[in-house]
# Entry
Amino acid sequence: MSGAKTYDSSNIQILEGLEPVRKRPGMYIGSTDERGLHHLIWEIVDNSIDEAMAGYAKNITVVLHEDNSCSVKDDGRGIPVDIHPKTGKSTLETVLTVLHAGGKFGGEESGYKVSGGLHGVGASVVNALSNKLEATVHKDGGVHIQSFKRGVPDAQVEKVGKASDTGTTVRFWPDDTMFTTVDFDYDTVLNRLRQQAYLTRGITLTLQDERSGKRARFYFEGGIKSYVFHLNRRDEAIGDIFWADKNVDGVQVEVAMQYKKDDYTEKVVTFVNNIHTPEGGTHLVGFRTALTRIVNKYAREQEILKEKDSNLGNEDMSEGITAIVSVKVAEPQFEGQTKAKLGNSEVRGIVDRVVAEALYDFLQENPKTARGLIEKCLLAFRARMAARNARDTIIRKGALEGMTLPGKLADCSSRDPRKSELYIVEGDSAGGSAKQGRDREFQAILPLRGKILNTEQARIDKIFGNQEIKNLIIALGTSIGDTFDISKLRYHRIVIMTDADVDGAHIRTLLLTFLYRYMRPLIDAGNVFIALPPLYKLQKGKQVWYAFNDEEKLRLIAEHGISSEGTQRYKGLGEMNPDQLKETTMDPAVRKMNRVTVLDAERANETFRVLMGEEVMPRKRFILSRAKHVTNLDI
Ligand code: 1YM
# Structure
């Protein structure tokens, strides 16, 4: 009768309603690649998490099925299935077919909606982008089902049996014509579920992968406190974990924090309504402000900071910190390029207040933790001051003006930086050969005394006290750090030329680290090179060949029948006479050089951190892991 007919016309409405989603899926789920595909899962899981945050659901299970479908099940109240007399549609159908119906629908008293957040486009978008979707609701003593194809209902919701429990299950088959892939990734889902489990303490999240048989379950009694514990599990920590959890003016603030002892990395992860905010925002600002203020206040009261001392700054708080800042806001405003930054101004003051109060109490109640934490911040503060003083000294000494070029520098005659090259050479003897072998018109030589790097555990700021580094800064002419000016660069090609042995590698690592940290634009602009001197000289009669690696050596030996007496391995640049150095390594017509990329420099920086930092274990691990690969070690 007429009921069925009404149903047909409402189908057309749904088709029209969801049409924009199928036309521009990227607008709703960000992209149609693997990321967008997984977004479908997050949308449905978010609804279950909302139900858990409202206090009704305790268990959420995600299953990745063999047929590339995914189902999400919770034990909440179940989406209402009663038919609205006017529309003739159930709430369930509305949630799954009307855009944005997932959010506010159902009344304000249900608390924060994840779906009000960053992408939170609701279940209807998942429905629109699925070949098929099946919803099963256990509620009011019955099992109710409704199925859809590309967002369009097959029929109205139907009661198919009895149920003694409550809950919602949604299974969907992503539309393979909409996505570049429909293959869900176990680890991606696993990581997301783990994170969500931390953020909503007390709920159990289960993942089952029927394709591989893998499964995992997460339950964290301590919530974000457990998260901090997890992040710090590999390091020694300073004292207990600080934790604050309070609702002020409808904004729920939860913060957990702990410092690591021998690690200097910073890890502060922020969330708004369980959505990661990688760009931070007002919640992060509030946290940092309170942290700095309270640490200074406590340090002064305890006279760890004396009257004459200046306050610790924001930047001194970050070495070794691990913190999670999670806020729940009724109407979050997201800003920034990727809409991943919280803009609500009221949140700043609220987070500040909650953290300040709780942190002050925590420090008073845990004096040992407090002292350890403050000492860590003081260390950062002192290092910062030392670096600044060292820099000021160098600048005062005339690096800026480039007036007093170092005596060791054998400068070139050209004054055109575009044509000029600076060879940084390891050792005085190689420096001597290089000076004789160079083209003095455009090639300058700066010899560095052998081991500039003999101070184990040297912090990078200590190298400012190093005469060799000072010489380098003055020779380059750019100054460093804040006063760096690339337009003053005296040589457009800076070539690092070190021996092909361990000491040479050390010096190269130090130089690259220094350039990376203090003269980064030179690397970005491609001004820095590594010279590649040959490793072998091969000789037969009067003929000479050079080999730059073992493979090449073997090939040349075989090709020309070279005897072992005719094979010479260069142990250092100093063994080469000026002519050899010129014809193999310095003459632009034949030399080989590698241009240093940011990636090379980042690696050097990391190596330096591991090798020279105060952590012993990573250094040990690093050396052990490399030991196998070291071949050209000359002992
Ligand atoms: C597998 C996905 O969607 N669970 C879920 C959704 C809802 C409820 C319970 C719910 C909410 C409310 C009242 C309320 C939703 N309901 C709505 C709507 N799991 C999943 N579990 N009763 C049940 O918010 O007041 C939208 S989502 F619109 F009906 F309120």
User: Anything to note?
Assistant: The pocket of 1YM is lined by residues 44, 47-48, 51, 72, 74, 76-80, 91, 95, 102, 105-107, 110, 168, 170 (CB under 6 Å).
